[in-house]
Design goal:
about 300 residues, rod-shaped, 7-stranded mixed beta sheet, cellulose binding, alpha+beta, CBD, 14 strands, 5 helices, signal, CBM1 domain-containing protein, Hepatocyte Growth Factor
């Protein structure tokens, strides 16, 4: 109601008061009039892009604003109000209708008497809307960092018109978000700064809705303004080099060493030394085994004796 009161006040002024009305509106920040930021810093009332869960369209542009009482509808008095704010989102301006072209053709008719007839043909050229279609009818929407804003429109042409009204917009992506956007049947209209290919369309929906349903994307079309390069923010595929044939390394030849079998000679059987006889000592070469139960007992460095 506050918005309507501003516009009504301006509309009620006479011609001499138009300048005063302009100054009055221009002196009030548009965000104070609307209750939200309608400029590019907040993505024209769509701060969250459509691929973020819980996001909402920032605006509606089309012939049925009465069907969207809770949305910012770009229609009638709202369009006139926004004209006072250069940085705000503006309503599309109607495009001029091309003038018919008159072509004069001279046709020679041969009869018994040669005559020349002049025929005037009026040709109305088919206007170009200035857009080239990049992809059509896919089941995913573009998701990219150069997102500018998004809203709802009734037709693709309305979405293109919105792109024409947003400074810097060169690409539109229109699609139906089934079960999403509050169950709306209108087209989602996403605007971008650069033109994209289907490689950047990786938003396939899949978000849970308040009613428990899951949204999904259909009828997604991409349109680029003529004369702008088409780019893709998707990473280029990594080329995989053909694997080199495995290198076969010959195993080193191992020369087996001859097995040496060592033979252990059995120790010679010693003769038992009688009781109290020598059984050891420096220079002694005889038996060191004593008759049982005697043992060879150390006496000194030069002599050991069998003792009990």
């Amino acid at each position: 109601m506050r918005v309507a009161s501003y516009v009504a006040a301006a509309a009620s002024l006479t011609v001499p008061g138009v300048f005063a009305a302009t100054q009055m509106l221009a002196s009030v920040d548009v965000s104070q009039v609307l209750g939200f930021d309608a400029g590019p810093d907040s993505f024209y009332n769509a701060p969250n892009p459509p691929w973020v869960a819980g996001s909402s369209p920032g605006w509606y542009y089309g012939p049925s604003p009465e069907n969207h009482p809770d949305m910012w509808c770009l229609h009638d008095y709202m369009c006139r109000l926004l004209d006072y704010y250069p940085n705000a989102l503006h309503c599309p301006k109607p495009k001029p209708t091309p003038s018919p072209t008159t072509t004069t053709k001279t046709v020679a008719t041969t009869t018994t008497t040669t005559t020349t007839d002049t025929v005037t043909v009026t040709v109305t050229p088919v206007p170009s809307d200035g857009y080239v279609q990049i992809f059509s009818n896919i089941t995913a929407a573009v998701q990219a960092d150069d997102f500018m804003t998004f809203g709802l429109t009734e037709t693709v042409d309305d979405c293109k018109a919105m792109c024409d009204s947003v400074p810097g917009c060169t690409f539109v992506n229109t699609y139906h978000d089934v079960n999403g956007k509050g169950g709306s049947t209108e087209l989602t209209c996403s605007l971008f700064q650069f033109c994209h290919t289907a490689a950047d369309a990786d938003n396939r929906g899949g978000q849970s809705q308040p009613d428990g349903s899951i949204d999904f994307i259909i009828n997604s079309d991409g349109w680029c303004k003529e004369g702008n390069p088409v780019t893709s923010s998707a990473p280029a595929p990594t080329s995989t080099a053909s694997p080199s044939p495995p290198t076969t390394t010959a195993a080193p030849t191992t020369t087996a060493k001859p097995t040496t079998t060592s033979k252990t000679s059995a120790a010679p059987t010693q003769t038992a030394v009688p009781y109290y006889s020598q059984c050891g000592g420096y220079g002694y070469t005889g038996s060191t085994k004593c008759l049982s139960p005697y043992k060879c007992t150390f006496i000194n460095l030069f002599y050991s004796q069998c003792r009990p």
